[in-house]
Amino acid sequence: MSRDFLDGHRPLIAILRGLEPERAAAVAHALVDAGISLIEVPLNSPNPLSSIEAIIAAVGDAALVGAGTVLDTGAVRSLAGIGARLVVAPNCNLPVIEAAVASGMIALPGVLTPTEMFAAVAAGAHGLKLFPAELVPPAGVKAVRAVLPPGLPLFMVGGISAANMAAYRAAGATGFGLGGTLFTPGKPLADIAADARGIVAAWDALT
Question: Global pTM?
């Protein structure tokens, strides 16, 4: 799996923390219909593997689906076993990155410092999740982008909304992870769809 995993996808990751398995397919369809086709269910959600399986069954042909908050290699094995393709972590855990790569999945570890960034790249990460983005202003993103490998996907995650995407994009961010601004447990499906369309429109206005 190379860094061209974004081909055909907007670089917008829907972070569905707290997703209920019984709503998983409907939420996934709403997101894909709105134009968001990178979907992660954090593993600290209720029955996350069930939700991920339901999403893969519903939109797996049109979306890259996997998990967030992946903290150990056992979780990577479980995800590989159900056909997940995306492994997102809040931290830079080298064995998790290596296990994901070995399993043919996309590894997006969480990083904050240049040391973590280059360690993740050396371990084979397909992209980086800069988290929490609130701690790194656009000027900081511009500085690290100047030394990172050209073309390496860099996702800003944490406190991202349509309002601050432009500044980070101008600084060199590749894309964004959207959590609470897009999804919260129990949020009506129509509101999820409307917010997803708004985020997609904000992204499309930048490209």
Answer: 0.97
